[in-house]
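In the present case, backbone shapes were mapped to integers, as reproduced here:
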Amino acid sequence: MSEEPAGPLEDATLDADQSKTDLENHVKPEAGDAAPFADDPSQLDGREALRPTRLYKRRWMIVLLFSSYSLCNSFQWIQYGIINNIFMKFYDVDAFTIDWMSMIYMLTYIPFIFPVTWLLDKKGLRVIALVATALNCAGTWIKVASVKPNLFAVTFLGQLCCSFAQVFILGMPSRIASVWFGSGEVSTACSIGVFGNQLGIAIGFLVPPILVPNVDDMDELAHHISIMFYITAGVATFLFILVVCVFQERPKLPPTQAQATARSIPPEHYSYSASILRLLRNRPFILLIITYGLNVGCFYAVGTLLNRMIIEHYPGEEVNAGRIGLTIVIAGMVGSLICGIWLDKTKTYKQTTLSVYFMSLVGMIVYASTLNLGHLWVVFITAGALGFFMTGYLPLGFEFAVELTYPESEGTSSGLLNCSAQVFGIIFTICQGKIIDGFGTLAGNIFLCVFLLIGTIMTGFIKSDLRRQKANLMAKAAAEGRMPEQDYGATALIFQPETPPSKPDQ
């Protein structure tokens, strides 16, 4: 894939702005590139010379393409659960079996996350993107072949394939932000990456109840299900072709000095297993793993069981159940973007994370206490408030983890967070489903409130050890100490070394 031509005026403008902030970014050590000045000691003079950097417009296309195929995959996570009762009737299975069509996404992630993050470290973004879209595309076409009441095993196989694709998707937002984006936009870029996943869930709540009405004629029902599966397969195929043709591993020039430095690290200097061990010895990060899992696991349980909760209090309202799910996720998307922008501006990671976590608890309490009032419009409002904070927490967790674990791989830290979320998601979904069956929706939601309270308290004990910020401040101070008095645009990126002291005559 060819790079954008570097216009002199554009480069001068971009690089002059970047020269003051190009050290402020988190990176994952990408091995194998030689340092540009490593063989020229005169360029170093005991200090590392700054290397050329550039922000490419293509970075927005890359993150939007990732968001699109993440959307297509996450749509399928909830497409069975939101019309749980309809698929129960069509395939003649019980509610718990249909719940597993969502929980398989969580279960598959747990054993495969470590091999996939290792592959991400070794092969890079493009290989991971190709595998993810290929698996997602294959899964959608398997589902197309499963639209008969006796072929539940086939549709489960298709969902299993799509769930495997998800393993290659969830940990990528922070990595794409790091590799492609400048220091002042990494949190926003990460939020956009998460945004696609959330939008897919939102569409998954909205579209299936519209495309698949609750009719009694099995042939007509099969026709409606087939239409939904064909649309999904068409979109997945189109996105796979786009990734093959468009998706790029990384820009020719790095976006920041930190990323440029990371490219110079040889492969033998990075150990994936050693990185995992260091992360597991990081106490603040371990606390974050648990609290993140509790929060996101609650969201997974609410999303999976939403249809059952709404139908219990508002029979026949499958379409509105989907719209309530849509409201939860749309509000969460707004929350994600606002939180991402806020973090880029303020860098108040712990304060923001704790505040949003506490408001997620409040939102869950209000939602639980108003669900059975008999007014759907109230449920829409309370569900939206819950979604704004609970779903808006997702990018906060990713970015806080990068701060606590710098300079470890973003893919590895994100993978551990997501693994925790899947484990708690399975536990909470099964337990809340059983509690709803035995004691009703209020008891099931109180169960989740208890764990959100625990998570809020634990978040307060996380030590705000912002390693990335400390490194950025030190690097920026060192860079500013070498800055020339006059800014010469693009040429300001390469600093002339001081004249070394003359050696005494031998």
Notes: The CA atoms of residues 16 and 487 lie 7 Å apart. The chain is about 70% helix and 0% strand. Residues 1-47, 483-506 have pLDDT under 50 and may be disordered.
